Amino acid sequence: MPKSIPITPAESRASSTLKFDPIPINTYRKSVADELVNFSPKDLMRIQRDMEVIRAFENMLNEIKLRGNYKGIEYNHRGPAHLSIGQEATAVGQAYLLDVDDHIYGSHRSHGEILAKGLSAIDKLEDTKLMKIMEDYFGGEALRVVEKDAKGTVKDLGVDYLVYGALAEIFARDAGFNKGLGGSMHAFFPPFGIMPNNAIVGGSADIATGAALYKHVNKIPGIVIANIGDASLGCGPTWEAICFATMDQFRMLWDEAHRGGLPLIFNFVNNFYGMGGQPVGETMGFKILARLGAGVNPEQMHAERVDGYNPLAMIDAVARKKKVIEEKRGPVLLDTVTYRFSGHSPSDASSYREKSEIEAWQKVDPLLTFAADLIQNNVCTQMDIDALRASAEDVILKAFKKAIDLGISPRSNLKQSKGNLLEKVMFSNGRVESFGAPGRKPEVLLTKEENPRVKQLSTRSRSAVDDKGQKLSKAKCIGIRDALFEAIFDGFYRDPTLIAYGEENRDWGGAFAVYRGLTEALPYHRLFNSPISEAAIVGTAVGYGLEGGRVIAELMYCDFMGRAGDEIFNQLAKWQSMSGGLLKMPVILRVSVGSKYGAQHSQDWTAIAAHIPGLKVVFPATPYDAKGLMNAALVGTDPVIFFESQRLYDEPEHFVPAGAPTGFYEVAIGEPDVKKVGKDLTILTVGATLYRAIDAAKELESKYGISCEIIDARSIVPFNYEKVIASVKKTRKIVLASDACERGSVLQTMAAKITQFAFDELDAPPVIVGARNWITPSDEQEDAFFPFASDILDAIHEHVIPLKGYTVSRESGTEDLLRRNREGV
Ligand SMILES: Cc1ncc(C[n+]2csc(CCOP(=O)(O)OP(=O)(O)O)c2C)c(N)n1
Ligand SMILES: [Mg+2]
Predict the structure, then answer these.
(1) d(CA 469, CA 477)
(2) Average pLDDT of the residues of the chain
(3) Beta-strand (E) ranges in 277-410?
(4) Pairing between β-strand 499-502 and β-strand 332-337 as defined by DSSP bridges
(5) pLDDT in the model for residue 1
(6) What pLDDT score does 57 carry?
(7) Which of 459, 601, 748, 767 has the smallest number of Cβ neighbours within 10 A?
(8) Are 188 and 227 in contact (CB under 8 A)?
(9) 91 lines ligand 1 (CB under 6 A)
């Protein structure tokens, strides 16, 4: 909503027709004969060699999966293998011109892309650089395995290394490219520009968009390609990625130094099938996939269909599209025609297609047709082709023997309790103040002191009370929204890679005004509005983060996490560990918990976030904690889901007398905090219920003489139970409160753990006071739903200690709880 883009009725209501440009379809018609001037015989032979290596690799896996035997050697591979037999020319043609700096992201069917890009990188890299990459990568673990019997050149060694590293990964070996933690569908190798492959259909679309954003914002060389299937066009996140990648603002609003389209190709590897469903004619309506670029932007995404059965057509397309991208006119959409002879997976009986169809494509198998073209043009003889094939099979057999041998290629021991690989890589737990290159200065528009909000905040009280202890009005104090602003604002002046985006982040100042004052301070590329594309907001943040930048993404309401479910739970949470500890994920996802907006805008979904391994989850309830936790997240290297309560944005600091410091400090993620010391009963709160617990404690103390200790969880994952156990040892009773629906909430987990860790110390089982297991009703009736002080008292009276003379505000005894559970409400 920038004011610089006026919307006029005259223009919007004028009459005309919208014209589309023709979309090229398989326009490249050259053969080897035509290209002899551009390619040396050696180049052409390398294209054939690379296709042979991929074919031999996939054939080997096919044999293993179907027969448990390759060339007489038995092996049982229990994991998946989605093979790309038939699709080799697409992968090799694409990789041929790409540099190491060009990054490809792929799918479940990306073995061919991994090998093609790797072979291309090996060919391009100087020997010393190649050696260094192999020596440095995970301490040279895979290199040690392949160099023992290496005979040829450094590049030959590179090929052995590539094939072995990929295969060892597929077979879950420690020396695999991702320490065996990624496997067939996720394997990748960044030093060659081979970035994460994704088992979620379309999963790479928004991640690759974020990677392109990273390159664009930080002026990092190279382009990014999302290799995704034709059927992924049915996936919402793929569309969201396309919307995000084609935003007008890149070319219209960003400053001159950052103006221009993203360096990105959406390459739809169009093999005409999902698993068995057919996009053309059955599950989609586009008929020709390339058509879809036409509606997205006036450039029609430079969409075209390319014959992916001709490696030269693919090379030509990449060359031309790279130029478009260099001219900052990206992104590009390619509809790359190909076909897989192999099933979706080896167990697929191809019941959805005729044998004759497969045979028709086998007749134009690129490995045969390209070889025939080479022979016809005297580039080589059939004997040379046979030799290439034999040599490719030798490379595969050699790697296979090593990769299946547990002596040579052991798996790491995940049963080991301390120091186990997976426990080490679930979080990176790093501390990096800036991901910028040394000496790089953050791009800002104002000095810190010039900022209007900073000036305004300097006049406010940092504490909720004045010097005499008198309560101040909230408007006179620094609230949580201001504390968050301060941490984020500082972050922008510390780390030049830090960017923030989401819906209404710029101009509006974030839906709840946390970002007010940032628009003035930051150029567009550091703070911008995204489309209403929650999946792409998170997915692009994942791509930006894993490429090496820091990002704060915002989903206005926590209820919208559902729209970004895959990106949060399968992508953000998993890439550090699926990389074997190679990647960092410095992504903060801010989500707010509402209260007044009814059933779809007022939910606390901490439980969902906490359930997924790989996410840090925090929920501060005071300005001091909000700023300290945000600071910790902003110098950390892990994904943090940062819950904020809309009830508390203007809440001042009541607990730390001097208030949240103006400078930098951290609150350690994972540490709860005793907000009030007491001796008779512990109340552990998550989020905004802290203040209702305080109200309850006042009543318990004044009316019933019960002294309460109140602990604010602050963090949910990780969570150190020490303070809670120490408190329970003292009080022997604990009540837990939060605004989340009680069933399956994080309080349930905490209560179970406290029971387990301190059973002997407890006089009564921990009691949970959550919201009802209902939809959230209207604000006018919220007291029937969210837990208030009276609910805490009711629960204590009914389930912990009877309060003398107390009358419950509503039924909450065991009978009623049993009924509610029986009815599922
Ligand atoms: C979100 C999601 N839905 C379903 C699946 C199961 N699945 C795996 S591959 C596949 C078909 C994908 O087709 P396409 O994107 O064209 O890629 P291709 O398999 O043809 O390479 C399906 C449905 C999945 N992995 N992810
Ligand atoms: Mg497909």
Answers:
(1) 14
(2) 97
(3) 304-307, 332-337
(4) unpaired
(5) 58
(6) 98
(7) 459
(8) no
(9) no
Question: In the structure, what pLDDT confidence band is assigned to residue 157 with cuts at 50, 70 and 90?
Answer: very high
CA 201 to centroid of ligand 1, rounded, Å: 5
717 CA from centroid of ligand 2 (Å): 38
Residue corresponding to tokens 């923030």: 500
The 10s digit of each residue's pLDDT in 253-285 is 999 999 999 999 999 999 999 999 999 999 999
Is the CB of residue 201 below 6 angstroms from any atom belonging to ligand 1? yes
Q: What mean pLDDT is predicted for residues 218-224?
A: 98
* DSSP-derived secondary structure for 155-216: HHHHHHHHHHHHHHHHTT-TTSTTTTSS-TTT--BGGGTEEEE-SSTTHHHHHHHHHHHHHH
What pLDDT score was predicted for residue 3? 83
List Cβ neighbours of 750 (8 Å cut-off, separation of 6 or more): 684, 713, 719, 724, 736, 766
Q: Which helix (DSSP H) or strand (DSSP E) does residue 552 occupy?
A: strand 551-557
**Residues 515, 528 contacting (CB under 8 angstroms):** no
CA gap 416, 307 in Å, rounded: 50
215 lines ligand 1 (CB under 6 A): no
For residue 379, give Cα distances in angstroms to 55, 682, 730, 767, 816.
21, 82, 85, 80, 84
Return the best residue to mutate from 83, 88, 108, 110 for the ligand 1 pocket (most ligand atoms within 8 A of CB).
Answer: 108
Half-sphere exposure of 261 (CA within 13 A, CB side): 28
438: how many CB neighbours lie within 10 A of its CB? 5
The phi-psi region of residue 367 (left if phi > 0; otherwise alpha if psi is between -120 and 50; otherwise beta) is alpha
738 in Cβ contact with 747 (< 8 Å): yes
Query: How high is the pLDDT of residue 505?
Result: 95
Strand, coil or helix: 457: helix
Q: Ligand 1, atom 12: nearest CA belongs to which residue?
A: 274
CA distance 445 to 439: 18
Token pair belonging to 398: 């050699």
At 387-414, the pLDDT tens digits run 999 999 999 999 999 999 999 999 999 9
The one-character DSSP state at 415 is T
273 lines ligand 1 (CB under 6 A): yes
Q: Residue 320: pLDDT above 70?
A: yes
Hey, is 768 helix, strand or coil? strand
pLDDT band at residue 177 using 50, 70 and 90 as cut-offs: very high
- Sheet with 587-593: strands ordered across: 527-529, 499-502, 551-557, 587-593, 640-645, 616-618, 715-717
pLDDT of residue 189: 98
Q: Ligand 1 pocket check: which of 109, 238, 275 to mutate, most ligand atoms within 8 Å of Cβ?
A: 275
Share of the chain above pLDDT 70, in %: 100
Q: What are the structure tokens assigned to 769, written together?
A: 């006071």
Catalogue the active-site residues: 601
Element (H, E) at 538: helix 534-547
Mean pLDDT of 605-631: 98
Whole-number pLDDT of residue 553: 98
pLDDT digit string, tens, across residues 78-123:
999 999 999 999 999 999 999 999 999 999 999 999 999 999 999 9
Evaluate: CB of 595 within 6 angstroms of ligand 1: no
Each residue of 453-465: pLDDT tens digit? 999 999 999 999 9
The 3-state secondary structure of 122-163 reads: HHHCCHHHHHHHHHHHHHHHHHHHHHCCCCCCHHHHHHHHHH
Contact in structure between 746 and 740 (CB atoms under 8 Å): yes
Residue 97 Rama label (left phi>0; alpha psi -120 to 50; beta)? alpha
Q: How far apart are the first and last CA of the chain?
A: 42
Q: Which residues pair with 424 in a beta bridge?
A: none
Region 341-364: mean pLDDT is 93
